[in-house]
Design a protein that fits this description.
Helices cover 39% and strands 20% of the residues. By secondary structure, it is of the alpha/beta class. Among the domains are: 2-100, no CATH class; 114-232 and 374-456, 3-Layer(aba) Sandwich (Rossmann fold), CATH 3.40.50.2300. It has a seven-stranded mixed beta sheet. Strands 4-3-5-6-7 form a five-stranded parallel beta sheet, sandwiched between helices. Strands 13-14-15 form a three-stranded antiparallel beta sheet, covered by helices on one side. A hairpin with a 5-residue loop joins strand 14 and strand 15 (455-456). The protein is globular and about 75 Å long.
Amino acid sequence: MADIVDAFLKRNPNFEFSSEAERKIKNLEPKKNPDRRVFLQYVGAGVAGLIVGAIGTFLLSPPKVEEKVVTRTETVTVTPKPEEARTVTTTVTKIETVATAPQPVKKPIPTTPIKIGHVHAFTGPAAVLGESTTLTIRWLEEDINAKGGILGRKVTHIEREQGSKTDEAVKEIRKIALEDKVDFSISTIGSGMAVATAPVCDELGLRQFYPANRTADLLPALKAPGSTTFRANRWDAGESLGLARAAMKLWPEAKKVAYIQPDYSYGRDIYAETSLFWKKFLPGFEIVAEAWPPLYSTDFTPHIVKTIEAKPDILYTSLWGGDWVTFLKQAKGYGLFEKIPHVIAGAGQESFHGPGAETPEGILAGVRYHWLWPPHEMWPPQKEYVSGYYTMHKKYPYYTGEGAVIGFTAYRNAVEHLYTQKESWPDTPDIVKAIENMWIAAPGGWVMIREDHELVCSDVNGITKYDPEVAKKYPGAGVNFPILDPVFVSPAEEIIPPVGMHLKDWIASW
């Protein structure tokens, strides 16, 4: 290499460093300060002019120097005497050096399968709500593996029953992290379980996505320092504000409201948020009755009778899963839907999959995600998901299934992006950082997982309706269970509070 540099300097006796380059070289640390000749080797003496910007970077990762021989044919005019002018063709051979950046060494992608942990309710009243998450994960596994996996790695999942108590769910979360050693988790049904398991996931470094837990009380755990947990489903904000606004538009004369709410954080949050909104914006608003049945009740008749006797204009209930199914059947026996003009089912997604055709028409249902909205012809992610899900399961998905898609997509997008950047399989801190502020084309439209690990999204609700015409394209829909028609969409900017603010505090500030 020294010979090449000497040859260059000999051919270019007037070549000098710029004063700026000389100054920067002199200021380098002695141990890192190459002499003039080594500097020329690193930046490439044959390059026309020295790029001063290279001085700050080549010491960290010196570029390779490649030698190449260039043969050039030149035509010159030789004139020994004016009357003897002639043209002479000569061949010139020149040695040049060209600096090239070092090629990073790719670390091989692990060959072991990517494990998804799935702690959910497979039995009991919560199983109705958990079913769509489970069926979606099974479809995602088959679909992604048929496409070659994630960066060539196959995907598998491990299912564990969450149990009926919070400490049981925490125990199972620890098992999937420590014993099963999953890569990430899509888990839990129930607000209390989410709030309790999030700090445990952070402690274990488990990348956890919540596909069903809607309570605003989960936010402090999501945004805690070092958090590895994310909300992946549409949450209380849409159910509270979206339904409260829809009710005012649909039934402007309705003022008297009754509540039948599950007696735990989720039910009480929805009660506080909707009543706070109505007190501010619905003149004459009055709560005429409220009931708080325990979670997983079997007898709702006292609450039904009390509510009917109060003669409200609107009944709002956030009963869900098996509780919603049981309540609906008992309420029909008492004629509740004929005696109360308007019913709002905040967690009414189970209208489609629990009681089925027993669900009355005309209920304002807060479904969070509707498998027919956006329309399939307008939004390919929706069409692909619903089609694949139905082909495998002969059912249609609901919001906890979309939550699984969002969580799965966030993880896949992060590792695929990071591997192209780092040339190695990413670690947890990088994956978490990549997911923050990530936009995802979810089945129900664009969503973003915000920097505080909260989901920013629109929300969907609508009126239950039977329509046999729908069944011609989607078997069973509109006949065996209701669809939504019309549909009301609440934009994210109208229902999601700013970073760091609880939903109730945000509403109170208006």
